[in-house]
Amino acid sequence: MSTKQCPSLEKRLAHLDLVQTQRLLEGLVAKHPELIEEIDRHISLITDSALNKEPSKLVHHTTIDLTPFQRQVGQIIRDAVRCWEEGCEDDPISEELLNVVQNVVDLSEHGESRNAIAILEVITSTCVKNWDDVADYGADNEEIVQELNEAWCETILSAELTSEEKVDLKVNLETWQDEWDADFGLALEALYQDWNYPPLMRVLEGQITEQGAWDREAPDYSDDLALIRLKILEREERYQEYLYLAQAEGQTQQYLTMLGRLGRVEEAFAAAKTQMTSMEEAFALAKTLRDQGALLQALSIAQMGLKLPGSSQYDLGTWTSDLAFELGDDQAALSAKKSAFQARPSFQDYQKIENLAGETWVSVKTDLLKILYTHGAWGIEEAKVDIFLHEGLIDDAIATVAELSSYYSTIIRRVMDAAIPHNPDWVITNARRRAESIMDAGKAEQYCYAVEWLKKVRTAYLDLGRQSDWSAYRAQLMQTHARKYKLMGLFKQRDME
User: Fold this and answer.
1) Global pTM value
2) Of the candidates 85, 211, 283, 472, which lies 20 to 30 Å from 376 by C-alpha distance?
3) Where are the domains of the chain?
4) Contact 439, 487 (CB under 8 A)
5) What is the pLDDT of residue 491?
């Protein structure tokens, strides 16, 4: 049966004339007054775009109304103060401000760099002016400054600024740095260099040296500056200059993937053999080559990547295994899946490896179990338990959970259920300890959990044929905790007799 799809907003609005649309907006604002701020900002942007329709040349003066943006930032800061005064422990300011800045970056990317600069000036100055209000509550400006620094850099490099405008911006940025204890070094470097910096110009012409795009030692933010420049070059489809700059500045991942995206597959493959240094670079290139239909080259690059350092071994191993399987290379699929398992063991992958291993499973299983025995990472306890119980390795499952906190009660009880016929004495000792710690502490809200542990104790005693020992232990507990009426009520359950 087909599902009826609702018409899109565009189609719904198409049925309205101008008067009806105005009434709709007026009604929405009446019900939701906060929308007026957003409407003001959109009107400012739309009006300004209509007045300045010069796609090949940026205007030198902006007519955008900046008041709505100033009000928005001021309101975010006031709302944060109110939230903290009411006892809020979350950060109510960073995400909101970062969203505002990102919207400005989006504006710059669509050719409105001068408007973006004007808005960034309002955002930055408003933050600087009012930051003491939130600093009193422990607000840190580091994250928002970093985002503003990068936004300023991109908008400056996307605009055509006069010498006078550059001087004005430099004064403002340096003033804000001092007043806000901020670092706008990246933005100031963009002002200083622009696109006419001689070392950069030589690189963009293909003259690449060990100095890269610098006439001095590259600063700490050189990678950030290079990535922003690459973003702009890509947007402007200046692909050869992109490749020169990426190569000169050591942006290997960007260099290799751009070669792949341009269809220069063999060139990318050859360069990767000598230039790749991390799993992440290999993963990015392999995915690009796959998108280009170069599946065998993608598989080869991914396999190389699994031998390089990096933190994406599980994701790369899983991706490589799936591609190899798709290409009918079962051995490569098995090897990559084992690599993924080594990084992050799971029962699901264990079973997939068993299916891929076929007749070699006995040998492969030994390798996987060695990985489990020596893997010390946090968070794989459930995987260990699943696999050990699947293989009947009860003692290994017991060793995995014996000292875990009761936070892991679900998998501990699973192990106890499996261990009762195998090692009931361990179940009795471990479950009694957990139950008694709750009861002795008088944690009434946790008595139900204590009783669940005691049920495991009872089952283990009965499995040993020691009903009398269980009855004696139960009687002792009832005597010791007789005044804990909630606990006594739970003790009267049928399966606690």
Assistant:
1) 0.79
2) 283
3) 32-51+64-194, 254-304, 433-497
4) yes
5) 86
